[in-house]
Amino acid sequence: MRGSISAKDLDDAVASLQVLGGDLPNKALADALNHTANQANRALVDEIDEVFDNPTSFTRNAVRVFHAKPNNLEASLWVKDEKDGASKGAAPEDWVAPQVFGGPRVDKASERNLRSKGILPAGKFLVPGAGAKLDKFGNMSRGQMIQILSGLGALEYKAGFKGNATDSARSIRKGHQRAYFVMKRGSVPIGIGERRDGTMVMVLAFVSQPQYSVRFKFHDVVRAIAEDDSRLEANIEQALAKALQAKGGR
User: From edge to edge, which strands make up the β-sheet containing 124-128?
Assistant: First the structure.
């Protein structure tokens, strides 16, 4: 997912940089393009804050700016597609793309773990139930999710990882293995329940795959900045003034 910014069709503004001489015109133009790209990035963060409900820092920082260089006079903005350990192995593009294009939500690691154990039926996804503990962003508490996966024996997602509840005295004291269970309506699994101290609540519900409508207008925001000639011309003038000042100070 990409948007780009260049000085195409701004011949007069670009020509004004030639007064610098040597390789400075391209350096100044790259500086102007990068300033414009940074403005586009700030506009994207504003859009994220407006269309998402209390977005996390991972979502607010999902866009990467690739800066222009004197030998490559184009700046671009990408939704990060590399795996990011801080986001639990998911690429930002995985959860942002459905908001840009619409369509189904991709599955989460917890859902893959539960499916691999035969707990979460095929085609079903997880949403917080009445007994779920939510963080300040409205998402399922990571600590509670780990307890649930551990109690259901679904936390060991890779060889050698030991996190599931066992029959050890320490594990029994925590009580997760006995607390969490699959709730059913008849023979159909409908969610994960938690039973403690004589009370029972649903902590996770099994639902059909969530579908998203278009909310985050990534390309529209970048295009509006990229096609704002007056903005880019002003940034070129600013870059020219800065370059002339630096040149005069030599």
Answer: 124-128, 199-208, 188-196, 180-185
Domain boundaries defined on the chain:
2-101+213-248, 106-209
DSSP 118: T
Burial of 35 (0-12, 13-18, 19+ CB in 10 A): buried
110/130 Cα distance (integer angstroms) = 18
d(CA 195, CA 179): 5
Its pTM stands at 0.74
**Residue-wise pLDDT tens for the chain (250 aa)?**
789 998 887 777 788 888 878 878 889 899 999 999 999 999 999 999 999 888 888 889 999 999 999 999 999 999 988 655 555 567 888 888 888 999 898 888 899 999 999 999 999 999 999 999 998 888 899 899 999 998 898 886 544 545 555 454 444 445 567 899 999 999 999 999 999 888 999 999 999 999 988 999 999 999 999 999 999 999 989 988 888 887 665 5
Of the chain, the end-to-end C-alpha distance in Å amounts to: 42
Distance CA(208)–CA(122), nearest Å, equals 10
